[in-house]
Design a protein that fits this description.
Radius of gyration: 43 Å
Shape: elongated
Number of helices: 6
Largest sheet: 5 strands, antiparallel
Helix content: under 10%
Strand content: 35-45%
Distance between the termini: 24 Å
Length: 673
Amino acid sequence: MKTRNTLFTLLITVLLSGHLFAQEKPLSVITKVTMDEVRLKWLPVNYEQMRILVKEGCTVEQVELLGSTTAQTADYTSGLKTIIAPTSVRLASMNVSDSAVQRMLALIDPFTAAAPAAEKENRDFAFALAVLEITVSDALSNAVGCQLTVQTKKGKRYGFRISMKGLPTAFIEVNTDEPTKYPTIADFEAKIDRKKTVELTWTAKKYQSYGYAFWLEKSVDAPKSGTYLTQTPYFPVRTQDEKTDKQDFLRDEALTEGKNHFYRLVGLNYFGEQAYFSEWKKIYVPRHLNAEVFIDTVYADKQTRVVKGSAFRLSKEPINLKEYVLLRSDKKDGTYSFVQQKNSTDTVFQFTVDMLKTGDQFYYKVAAVSTDNDSVYSMAHYLFTLDQEPPSAPSKLSGTINEQGIVSLTWSAPADNDLEGYRIFRANHKKEDFAERNTVLSLQTTFTDTLALNNLTPEVYYCVKSVDKNFNNSPFSDTILVLKPDTIAPVPTLLRKPLVHDSLIRLSWINSPSADVAQNVLLRVSNNQADTLVKWSDTLSVFTDQNIIPGTSYNYLVLTNDKSGNKSTGTPQQLYYEPGYRKSLVGFKTESLPKEKLIRLSWQIPDGEVFSYQIYKATETGKLTLLKTIENGATTQFEDRNISSGKTYRYTVKYILKSGIHGLPTNEMVVLF
């Protein structure tokens, strides 16, 4: 019964409420006024009134209004009276074997039966169907006896009184100097989607005061009235799950390629007349490319790259080929840029691309384009060549050495984009052979070396080479001189054992007694990463570390520097921080999707091996309860379909690691569906 209730509710809302008709009237009366004619249509407001109209008929009286006389105060004694007989009188003269008559009889039958339908839903549904048909059918309106056309004179006012047995009288007043005007349909739009479907959209609700149904006119090559996209008028009926003010739409998939298609929206007034129109919309349907494209061969010939392939026709229809376009990208799923274009209708193609250097590596695609710019792309093909060009040498090499004999080198990287790393060389004299100091190539532009200071050699020299991914070596960089210091390091600061307080670690220490201390630096090392926590040169002796991660081992140490640049390192303190819980999920969000009838929850996978996710749900004021346990640690979303329109829901998610440790629940997310 859901569809029946929806149809009934929507029709009654459209036809009998709003600004068209007042609810207090016993009958809803619609008029269409011209200079010499008035059309009247009266509609019962419920099933019972429709039975009275069908069984008893009604009386329509007309009188000319003079002066300040109104339809309610006029004297109808000498006016024109039209008696509308019961429906059965008109049905008796109809051909019951005619299919159109049979359709009318089926719609009227629930109101001519001896007893009304027992179920209210059946009565309401029968009433809704009859009213819907009456709004577009002259034949049914005449058969029921709910419309009348009368002749009038220009510049006159007329009053009408419509009487029905057992119901209050309905009055209506018209002025022939104020003919009924219908608007132009201004928001009708037509666009082609994916080159295969024309989508027609408008907002029917804007025009409900003029009519309820629409015809969609369609023609090819030129506008042509009276040719329709559908066999019956369009009625903007909504289900209970749809918004009544959303856009209406129809789709046309019966398209002819290479042709102009014309569409016009025609509004039907409540007498079933074509009364208001949109402008014609022109849509050109392009000729599609009737082919698939394949790259057969990609190879390098010295400094030239060759791409060959072909286009295969998919059917007997013309292939419509105009050109081929070559594109490339440095990533398979990256952005592809234009390389070359060739005008061709041949089903085979070949591109040649000149390269200045070796070591190129690209993914190539070919697009075939139709005469109407429809395109089809090939799969990506990868081609690379070995790099034989050495990179440029590093520049701006500089270095410092501290009192512990630690040398810190820095330099600027060359512009080459295929570097594998750097080689660092050292010698005690500029003219002797340089020895390589690193055994692993790295892209870092810094290097730390260690020197023995207890010798008589005050000088040390460094230089650096760049190495690319094919192990081509650059020339040496400039050679720099680093002078060794000769000072005594300060007494190190004594770091006490760290203390854990819930979500923080409290550190304390005894500062160095050396008189020439310039600065102390507290470092934290975890996962091969060193972080500076605090620097001080005064009597500071405590620090609280709040930026900590559960389940992580931390090493804390203090570096002490004197005014001459000498440094000493205190004894490190190690601590494993484990509070027994983990932070809540990152990136937790919700998404309301009414069209798909679901609410989607999503999050990011946390650190650690996840055993399960637990999803909790509640209504707006209800208690959170466990909705779902997901035992798949790779899951990042959940769709809740057990929802109802117009309700508010709350969600939170937590996780459990395979170690048994729980994550904190996320903040609650509130969703209005």
